[in-house]
Amino acid sequence: MADPGKVAAMIGWVALLVVMIWIFGFLVTIPSYTLLFMKVRRERWVTSLLFAGIGFAALYVLFIVALHIELYPGLIFKQ
Fold first, then answer.
1. pTM for the complete prediction?
2. pLDDT digits (tens, 9 = 90+) for 28-77
């Protein structure tokens, strides 16, 4: 059986992701969340920044450039 503390921590991370997307939108949240999560897990800065950058680039190229889909901009960037 899973450790209840670890389960609660992961639920908290998912809740943070949802709230961040709601407030800041996808393009800001995905790299920020990736960087935050990896630094909390004690990954090296280079690795964390690399994955955050790759996440942003993949999201941007796939949805904005290739599919022409406008992602949710977040509450603070909504026009």
1. 0.89
2. 999 999 999 999 999 999 999 999 999 999 999 999 999 999 999 999 98
Contact indicator for 33, 52 with CB cutoff of 8 Å: no
- 30: tokens are 């995905």
Contact 73, 64 (CB under 8 A): no
Whether the CB-CB separation of 34 and 48 falls below 8 Å is answered with yes
Q: Which residue has the tokens 């909390």?
A: 40
Q: Average pLDDT for residues 9-33, to the nearest whole number? A: 96
Q: Are the C-beta atoms of 16 and 33 separated by less than 8 Å?
A: yes
Q: How far is Cα 74 from Cα 8, in angstroms, rounded to an integer?
A: 26
Nearest Cα to 71, choosing from 41, 27, 30, 19?
27
Report helix, strand or coil for 67.
coil
| Residue 79: C-alpha distances to residues 35, 67, 74, 75 (Å) | 27, 22, 10, 9
